[in-house]
Every structure is written in C-alpha cells, then in structure tokens.
Amino acid sequence: MVPTAGDLSFLGRGTFSAEGYMELFNGRLLAVGILIAVAGVMAAPTAVKAAKCGTNDTLTVAQMNWFSGGVMAFVTQKVLEKGYGCKVQLQPADTVPTASTMLTRGRPDIAPEMWVSLIPDIWERIEKSGKYFVASQLYEDGGVLGWWVPDYVAKEHPELKSISDLKDNWKLFAEPGQPNKGRLYNGPPGWGGSVVTANLFKALGLGETFELFSAGSGANLQAAIARKVAQKKPIVTFYWEPTAVISRYRLVRLQTPPYDAQKYACLSKPDCANSQVTGWQTTKIEVAVATPLKKSAPAVVEFLSKMQIPNDAMNKVLAWGDSNTASLQDTAHYFFKTHPNVWTQWVPADAAKAIKASLK
Amino acid sequence: MEVQAQVTDPKIRTERVSKLFGPDPQAALPLLDTDASKAEIMEKTGNVVGLRNVTLDIVGGSIFVVMGLSGSGKSTLIRHINRLIEPTAGRILVEDTDVVSLSQTELRDLRLHRVSMVFQNFGLLPNKTVLDNVALGLRFAGASNARARELAMEQIERVGLKGFEKQYPRQLSGGMQQRVGLARALATDAEILLMDEAFSALDPLIRHDMQSQLLELQTDLKKTIVFITHDLDEALRIGGRIAILNDGSLSQCGTGEEILLHPADDYVKRFVRNVDRARVITTAAAARTVPMMTSAEISADKIARLLSAEDAQAAFIVDDEGRPTGAISAASIAHHADDGYWRDSKHVLPVTRVSSDTILADALTDVAASEIPVAVVDESGRLIGAISRRGLLEAMAGTDGPSYTAAPEV
Amino acid sequence: MADNFPDLIDMRAVRSGIDSWFNGIVSTYGQALETAFLPVLRLLNGIEAFLLWVPWFVLIPVIAFISFAATRDWRMPVAVIVMLFLTGLLGLWEPAMATVALMLTATLFAIVTGIPLGILMSFSNRLQAVMLPVLDVMQTMPIFVYLIPFVMLFGPGKIPALLATIVFSVPPLIRLTNLGIREVNPEVIEAVTAFGATPMQKLFAAQLPLATPTIMAGINQTTMMALSMVVIASMIGAGGLGYEVLQGIQRLDVSRGLFAGLGIVFLAIIFDRLVQAYGKRVQQHLDAGNT
User: Fold this and answer.
1) Per-residue buried b or exposed e for A58-78, using 16+ beta carbons within 10 Å of the residue's own CB
2) Which of C252, C253, C254 is most worth mutating to test chain A (most A CB atoms within 10 A of its CB)?
3) What gap in Å lies between CA B41 and CA B35, rounded to an integer?
4) What region, left, alpha or beta, does residue B324 occupy, with left being phi > 0 and alpha being psi -120 to 50 degrees?
5) Complex ipTM, two decimals?
6) Distances C228 to B244, C63, C99, C168 between C-alpha atoms, Å
7) By C-alpha distance, which of B262, B253, B265 is closest to B226?
8) Is B320:B294 a contact under the CB 8 Å cutoff?
9) For residue B190, what is the nearest residue in chain C, using CA coordinates?
10) pLDDT digits 0-9 by tens, A167-202
11) If 0-12 CB within 10 Å is exposed, 13-18 middle and 19+ buried, where does residue C149 land?
12) How far apart are CA B192 and CA B64, in angstroms?
C-alpha cells in the first residue's frame, strides 16, 4: 500500500504543522518516515486492528444534517473506530451536496444514510460511474415521505384524509399573515423531497388556494412544526420518517394514490413540465460505499453490507434522543446500549466485544 | 498666606471657594487649609486641587481679570460663577443669589438672563447660521423665532458682522467667529459676562482688535465682565483689577500697575517679567526726584552741590507754583561756575514735560529726544520728578522698580 | 468518550427544563406575538408591493436621480443604472425588491430603536456599562441561536427574519450613536449649557446634529449588516435574493448562487454609497469651527 500525500494529511497536519514543518514536500517525507517508525514500534498492539480495518487512510463518513442521519454517522464511526480500529472523520453534509461530491471527488467514503430516491438522476450517474455501490438498505422498511398533519388535526377533521382533500380544506391551514390562502410547508431547496412536493403542489392545482412555503432550512421547518404543535394549531407539511419529528409531534401522513414510477420520475425533476399526481416512492435509504473500499477494507465493507435497522427501533431511538434533548453521540450511545441484538449482527464477535468494552 | 480681595457691595463674590477633582474630594478638603502643596495632596489623596479657598469680590460694571498659567484654576473659577462646575466647598454669590443653592430651574434662569459666557474656542454650533447661533440663548429662554432673530440681529450689527448673519461659523475667520460668540453672549442682555480666554485662540493682531472692540463696547454697556487670560499684557490692557491664581490659590489681586510694581511672590514676579511694562507703568511711577530750585535761588555753587549730592543729571528750575520752567545740566555747570551766567534765562535749557499719568510707551519719544531728563508733572503742572533715558530703560526692564539711588550715568 | 470535565450537574435536566419553559411560552404567547407583529409584516409587504408596483423603468431613473442628488457626481447614477439594470437582466428584479424591502424595514426599525437607545446610553455611564456587553452578545452570538427560537415565537417567514436582522444589525448603530454623542465637542455642549439649555434642548440643538456624521456611519453599517443577513434570513423563509443564493448553494447550482450574490453586492454598493454621500452632505457644515 502506497500512501498518498493527501491521505497522510492526518499525520502531517495535526502533528507537524505546529512545529513549522508545514511545507508540503518536507511534510510528505517526514510523514512517510514517521509512519514507518510508528508501524515498527507499535507493531504488536496495533497489528490486529490494522489488519481488521485494512486501511490506514482516514475514512470519511457523511454526517447528514438531520437527526437520524447524524446519529447513524456516529453509529458508523463508533463501529469502525472501536470495532475495526479505523481512522474516521465525519463530514457534515446534505443529500444533494454529498451526491455531487461523490460524483466529482469520490468522497465521502461512506454515506450510511443516503436517500437515493430523492436524487434519482444524480444517483443513476453515480452508480453508472462505478465509484460507489449500495452495501445495504439502512432501514428495513425504507424511508416514508409525504405530507403530514398533526394527529389532533386528523382526529378533528376526518374529512381530511388524502392529499387531494387539501384543496377544499385550505381555510384550516391559513396563516394570520396571509389569511386568504392555506399554507403548505415545504423543506429547504436542498432536499429532494422539496422538489417532489413543489411538483405535486402544481399537479394538484393547489396554487389556487394554497401558498407553498419554502422553509429555507431544516431547522426552520422543524421549528415551524414545533410551534404549531405547541399551540395545537393545524399545519400541513412535507416530512419523512424515520425521524424524531414524526414520533415526537405525532404527525399523521396524508394518503396518496399508489406510486407510479414514470410519473414520480418527472415529479423528482426540478423542471418537470407535465407533473401528474402520484404516490411517493417508498424511499430507498441506502448505505452507499466507495467502490475502492471493497479492496482496501473488505472487513469494513462486510460490516456495511450487514448494517440494517428496523424502522420502529430507529424511531424509538430517535424519540428517546429527542425527548431527552440528547446529543447525536449520546443518542448513538443509547442505540448501542439498548439494541445490541441489532448491531451485534453486523460485526464479528471480537469486534462486538471491543465495541461493548468501549461502551463501559 | 491666603490672599483675599474684598470690597463692599460686590456684584459677584466668591467665599472660600474650593474645588477638588478626584475620587474623594470631601476627604481631601481639610488638607486645603494646611501647608500641603497641590502635588502633596495629589499624592496623598489622589485628588487634584482645582481651587483652594478663593475669596474674591468683583465690582459691578467693571472688567475683572483672572489670570494664571494653565492649570492654575482660572477656568475652573469662572465656571463656578454660572455653576458649570459645582464647588466642593464655599459660596458663590451673584448679587444676593447664592448660586450653589439654586434649583435646576433657578440655575437655568440665572444662565438664561443674568450670566452669559464667551468661550476660548467659541463654542459655536457649526450646523447653525451666525444668526441662529446668536439667537441661541434667546431661543432657549423661549423667545419666538422671529423675536429672537430680531434681537440677535441687533447684536450682530453691534459687533460689526452685519451681512454675515446667513453664513455658517466655518465660513468665518477666528476673529469673526469670536465676535459671533460675543454677540451671542450680549444677546441675552445678561448683566454679567464671563469670558474664558476669549481671545487666546486668535492671532495677535486680531486679538488686539478684539480687545479694543470689547473696551469700546464696555464704555456703552457697563457690564460686569470676568475675563480669563493667561496673557498679562492682555490682562493689563483690559482689566481694571486683576487677580492672579497659582495652583488654585489666589496669589495677588490688584490693579495692573500694583502687580507690576509690587509683585506679591515669585510666581507673580515670573509672570510680570516678560510683560510689556512700557504700556502699563506710568511716568509717575518711573520718575525720580530731581534737584529743583526757584530762579531766585540759583547759584552755581548750589547747583553743583545739588547735582553732586543727588547724582542727578540736571537740576530743574521751577516757578512759585512748582511748575518747571527750565533746567541746568550737570555737564554744563562744570564749564560755567558763574551765578550771573545761569541767572540769564537764555543759558537755561528748555524743559520737556510729560503728564504723570502718561504710560512709558507714550513718553518714549520725548525722553529719547531730550538731552536731559524729562520733567514729569501732575495735573496742575507741578514738577513731581523726572525720567532720564536710563531711568526709563530701568523702569521698562523692571529691575525692582525705580530706584532713587541708582549709579550715576557716565 | 473521554470526559475531561466531570458532570457536576445534570445538564440534560437543565436543558429540558429550559426547553419546556420555552415551549410553554410558545404555546401561550406565540399566537399573540405573531398577531402583534402583523402590522410590521404589513408594512414590509407594503414596501415590497410598492417597489414591485412601480415599473422598473420608473424606479431605476428615480434611484439614479436620488443618487445624483446625494452625490452630485454623474458617475454614481450611471453606476446605479448599470447595476440595477443588470439585476433585472439576471432575472432578479423581484427577489431584489423583496430584499430591499426587508432591508429598508429592518433599517427603519433599527433607527427607531437604536438611536434612542444610543442616546440613553450616552447619558448614563451605568446604562453604558450594562449595554456594552449586551451589544457584544448580540454581535457575537451565532445568529441561529436566536433565529430558530424567533421562528417558534413568531412563526416562520418574514417577521422572525426581520427581527433577527434587526438584532444583528442594530448594535453598530447603538454604539455609534452613543459614541457620536459622547464625542461631541465638549466646549459646544458647555456653551449650550451655559446659555441655559434644558437637557432636551441640548440634545436637539447640539448633541444630535453634531453627532450626525457618526450616527450616519452607524446607519450605513446597519444597512450593510442587514444586507449581509439576507441569505441567513432566507433560511427561515424571508425569500428575496438570499433565497436565490440558498437555492443555488443547496442545489449546487453555482451560476444561480453567483448571480444572486452579485445582486446582493449591487444593492450593497448602491446603499453604501447613497448613505455615505448623504452623511457627507450632512457633515459639510460640521467640519470646521469645531476644533
């Protein structure tokens, strides 16, 4: 294995930059030297782990900027670090930017929660390029997208069952600032679901009675939902599960017609000319892995191909984290503690032991 | 060591006014009555002495000058009169009004109607026209805009700025700006005018003009003017009475001539050293007594005796009233020791006379042109002494005032 | 997980306490707050509607004329015309007007609140001592920390965006108003006092006019900071050019982001120069005679 300069950065930058050895050429030579020295000195204790991980490169893991995506990034990191002795760096990201860096730069190495259905075009190109492969379906039942209303709205308004009922019931969703139109909350422009929602909005002819409100950011959308639920006011919004938001605010999904692949393909394009109403595709949420890892870290790929969580287990973990205002790490920790039956399936016994030991 | 200057029925009176700046003025107050110097008080208590037991009376209708170096407390003192600064101790009376005890409303009334002020750097509002600057005090007092402007215009004319009323201060020269400041102060018709180094920021020539204008105005207005300056020449030119402050204490108070001729301490001496004495000291103060005789008494012998005894340059011949009619110089007496010769009036030298209230500067040409000392006469023409060239120079140089036993001229 | 610092208190309980308190506020007062700020929203929407109602071929010359009146320099209106025309050409006219409306409203409210606060601060050293750290917090606290609570209190959209913009952009105006008044030539203030001015007369005759250049610099900074907030404001639904930028970056649509960014830069240049030029005109009588 010949390390490249870029991949040695974790050695060169962190260790030597402070002492002024940052000049790239010197840094590279020194790094190689140190690497050999370290490998020699620490041969005995590190040999086992290094062999398991299979690579000394730092593995980059996409940390999606929503709750489950963040938690899964930490779960992946923990398994790789503690179970396999890998070096892991988390890379904060969003769906579309991650997909495009995958295509252009071959990074990150692992995207544990990749909502590929939201970006069918780009994902197709990525798969065609051969740079990435799908190791596993992260959630057993996949991701469920849709338009959601709080349970109290569903209960008080039985007439509102499906997305096609919205048009006539707009008054329910009118806002004080815009009293003559209902408001459908959409996600920020970076979300694939926002595109589908916008096209579906058009297809349903909701423009007559509704405004499509673009939240601008996930945090904003979540705050808007939190606000309405706190006030027990109606809201209809795009969202998905598994998420803490769905379980925490008890959102109920509005029914849709059945999924039609052709119609949906158009809906997921920003410039869809002929948008037609159809059901949401049950979203594939996939563990996407850079192809080179198959060779360099087969043990890791083996783990990633087994990585899968039942939806209800994940919903529970997320709901716990949310109601306890726990950090991403703590929620990941909670998952390891409470669901050993899930994650011990992913790894060989010795790695499981090492991970368990690290949990204290 | 405390100098006091009190008169009866003053317009403004300060009674043991003290001001300390710093963390705990009250604590340092007792030290003011001790020998502790300003520096010592600073070191001990951290307080800066601004004023130290200043007791002054200022007579109405006159110009009173307060003088001192920077840091002497003169600007602090003047600001006590309209209470821009609150005293740490002491009383300030404007006529019967105790300024310190006034309420805010009463104080404002004092400032609006009774005391106005002119500032060193003019303190004009740069965003207002000359007219509106002058009208400022009137507007504050509640006058209508039209009325205020009308009154302001009168004052603008008085200080000779007619035609400039629509200009902004920055468009005017320093001297003109200060005339705006003066007009503004006059506009409120206050009887007391505080002038804080009012002309110090101006060029010497302009300053001189402004002094003249102020004196001219004062002959009409008869205001009570408290004038602060660090320039003794200015003080002497403007002031009736002058108070000299040093480190917050009053060093001396008196007329200009009194201060020049009898400086109270080294501080005042240093002050008066560089003053243009010729413009202050009168011939009366510089004159020396001279030998004199009536024409009947003339004898060569007597003249020689008189001249040698008094080391004088000339003996004066006076008439029965004591008025000088001629003089005999010491130089010529040696050649003609003949009584008859001297009784012949054609041999007696003519006398140049100056009146005793002439300032030396104005007697200069006469003294310089005359071979013998110039006779100084009082208002009825009587000889009271004479000024020689040397005596004049000595008086102007200020070598401890005129000496009657100076070494003879060679 | 290596914890260097011991867990002395249960932060989770503290946090959930704060959160449930805040949720309580949201559910109790959220609606009332949103309703209370509706007039502000109407004003903002009114300004926006007006700017869009005026045809572009009228608005551009009007702004160009204003810029000429402020600068007395023919280059400024030419630059204004070119930049505004380009903005329209790039298809950004509507979002640009939305951004201008937001910025103008934010600046207006910043002036209405900031200048009086700055004045009060200049009068009282104690208030200054309290306010300075508050202003520091306002300027250094990451915007998202209060942005999302604002959304929960007022509902997503323009009101929280406006409030966040004001919170972010008003500190320099408060600071500079305070500073400007404190730096007014003390002799002028003394003169005004000596002529019997009441505190109010002092303020309006001397302090405010003489502090105007500094206050104008504060307004200038406020408008610039308000403009710099538009992208962040768009993340909570304020729309405008910021939303175009946001769309550009979130969809990796580089050209869209770039054009919208240029639009923001154009607006910044125009407003910066206009306010500066106006400030200079106010200042012209204040230069001299004020040593």
Assistant:
1) bbbbbbbbbbbbbbbbbbbbb
2) C252
3) 10
4) beta
5) 0.76
6) 61, 21, 11, 10
7) B253
8) yes
9) C195
10) 889 999 998 878 899 999 998 887 778 889 999 999
11) middle
12) 11
